[in-house]
Automatic annotation (TrEMBL):
Region ranges (Disordered): 238-258
Protein's name according to its UniProt entry: Histidine kinase N-terminal 7TM region domain-containing protein
Record field: transmembrane: 6-25, 37-60, 72-94, 101-122, 142-165, 186-208, 214-233
Keyword Transcription regulation: no
Record's keyword terms, sorted: Membrane, Transmembrane, Transmembrane helix
């Protein structure tokens, strides 16, 4: 397959995650909310991981630099990033003390996971065929796999769970909040939920169903849907910032009682 076509889906991911990360980072620099910091970290991880994947293809997957870029891509994007996205959701609805405990725990798990991925044995034959796929089966099974499943599960449960909880609470409130219809905020949560599920499903499909070739397209679709949720929620009235929203979307971040 043409190299340009293989690079196109990852490039879409680079653009979407880059824009998304910049938006949330600007919010953090202006408002200093902890959940914005954790979302920024996770999105920067996704951005760097996808850049590493593209660099790997350009350098040659089985070359020295190519193997390094693959490990970086897998450690950040495949293993660690989803859990930090989930941490942002947890920080949005939790008290600072509990969030700090989660941060310390996640830092420990992330460090251990990165060490395991960097130390794992690479199947060079599989790596040579990675173009256009997520790289499923490229690392020989080991402790890294347990940590990857654990961190991915924690991340998607946190993001999707907080989104569903927020949506359920909003359904019980009045029809209008802060100049924005409740339904619009609900739609923002719906998009965040669907995006998180799609991103999680991309890896699952690749690993268990063998649909490697559509991994990056599913990931791109998931990030775009997440981004739509951000845009919807960012249209909230700036005059009222007291309504919690369970996603990394609030352009004028909500005030969370802590």
């Amino acid at each position: 397959m043409n190299t340009t076509l293989l690079l196109l889906p990852p490039l879409i991911n680079v653009l979407v995650t880059g824009i998304f990360a910049w938006m949330i980072l600007r919010q953090y620099l202006g408002r200093r909310r902890s959940y914005q910091l954790y979302w920024s970290i996770s999105l920067c991880m996704a951005f760097i991981a996808t850049l590493a994947y593209m660099a790997m293809l350009l350098a040659g997957p089985t070359s020295g630099p190519g193997v390094y870029f693959f490990r970086l891509y897998y450690a950040l994007g495949g293993t660690i990033m989803p859990s930090w996205l989930g941490l942002g959701s947890i920080a949005l609805v939790s008290k600072p003390r509990f969030t700090r405990v989660c941060v310390g725990f996640l830092l420990l798990l992330s460090t251990i996971s990165a060490i395991f991925v960097l130390d794992a044995t690479v199947d060079m034959h599989k790596l040579s065929q990675i173009a256009g796929t997520p790289g499923t089966g490229t690392l020989h099974p080991g402790p890294w796999l347990v940590m990857t499943i654990l961190l991915n599960t924690l991340g998607v449960v946190a993001v999707a769970g907080v989104a569903l909880l927020s949506g359920w609470k909003l359904l019980r409130k009045q029809a209008n909040m802060g100049g924005t219809r409740t339904s619009n905020i609900l739609w923002a949560n719906v998009f965040i939920f669907i995006g998180a599920i799609l991103n999680a499903a991309a890896g699952t499909l690749a690993r268990f169903l063998g649909i490697d070739t559509i991994f990056w397209l599913i990931m791109a679709l998931g990030w775009i849907i997440l981004f739509i949720g951000v845009v919807l929620a960012s249209r909230r009235s700036r005059g009222n910032q007291s309504t919690p929203i369970s996603n990394p979307a609030a352009a004028d971040p909500v005030k969370v009682s802590q």
